Amino acid sequence: MNSTPSRQLALQGAAVILVLSFAWPYFGLTAETLPWQQTSLAIGAVALIFATLTRQPWWWRIIHAGFMPLIWVTQSLAIDPIWFLVAFILLLLVYRGALSGQVPLYLSNPQTVTALAELLAERGPSRFLDLGAGVGSTTVPLADHFPDSHFTGVENAPLTWLVGRYFCIGRPNIHWRWEDMWQVKLNDFDVVYAFLSPVPMPRLWEKIQAEMKPGSLFISNSFPVPGTAPCQVIEVDCTPPRPLYCYKT
Ligand SMILES: C[S@@+](CC[C@H](N)C(=O)[O-])C[C@H]1O[C@@H](n2cnc3c(N)ncnc32)[C@H](O)[C@@H]1O
């Protein structure tokens, strides 16, 4: 079942319309004030039913059930609206990638970095690119481990980039770039690493095939290229599983 954000918006909207189309006339006719607490709970219950009937993933069902009741709780706390603006701006500065390309921030773990280090050790000095480099959780430890290799991290979320920039201070073999990964030419690199989401993988694979030099290596953490068999899959010892899908160009 399709679970795109627009579908979730439609489900929640349908629950709001359904409940309010009964509640408003009823409380209007009886000349009573609409009880927002009960109404928000009813919307949550109806949204949960809709999400269950349309077989949405379990986390979406929880979000649907809790969304309106939480809005009611939040508004009853009477928080100064400026804090919502501040929170929104902070989220935008960190999660810009989720908004524009459905790629949020989550970090590679140390086990993944160890597996990548083993791959790089086999290849010898490399020019390594992390597409969507986050705060440098991959680039920084690898750069320390391989002083003879050169590492580039490309990140487009401003706050995330800034934190990563701080970690790169004093590491001359890292080039930390604030840039859209789609604008980066890949032919300068012989190993490209990406930990993104399923959404950009088809487009990214086209870019890799068009730009990476023959004999280069593309490694995707967790998300395989659809319809293309990897030359190697490395099972990293971690939970949840985060296989590394390797493709030779
Ligand atoms: C899942 S995180 C991976 C972070 C890091 N590579 C790691 O393994 O720890 C994906 C990152 O890609 C960034 N991102 C998403 N779209 C991007 C784009 N078009 N250009 C540059 N970075 C992007 C996000 O902001 C996020 O920080």
Descriptive notes:
The protein is of the alpha/beta class and 249 residues long. Helix content is 51%, strand content 13%. The protein has eight helices and seven strands; from the N terminus they run αααααβαβαββαβββ. It has a seven-stranded mixed sheet with strand order 3-2-1-4-5-7-6. Helix 2 (36-53) packs antiparallel against helix 3. The structure holds S-adenosylmethionine. S-adenosylmethionine binds at residues 96-97, 101, 103, 105-108, 130, 132-134, 137-138, 154-157, 160, 180-182, 195-196.
Q: Which keywords apply here?
A:
249 residues; Rossmann fold; 2 domains; 8 helices; 13% strand; elongated; binds S-adenosylmethionine
Secondary structure: elements and pairs:
Layout: H1 5-29, H2 36-53, H3 58-76, H4 81-101, H5 110-123, E1 127-131, H6 139-145, E2 150-155, H7 158-168, E3 174-178, E4 191-194, H8 201-211, E5 217-221, E6 232-234, E7 244-248
Helix pairs in contact: 1-2, 2-3
Bound molecules: S-adenosylmethionine.
Residues 96-97, 101, 103, 105-108, 130, 132-134, 137-138, 154-157, 160, 180-182, 195-196 line the site of S-adenosylmethionine.
Average pLDDT taken over every residue:
93
Q: Roughly what fraction of the amino acids lie in strands? A: 5-15%
Largest sheet: 7 strands, mixed
Counting helices, strands and paired strands, the structural category is alpha/beta
User: Which parts are unreliable, with pLDDT below 50 for 5 consecutive residues or more?
Assistant: none
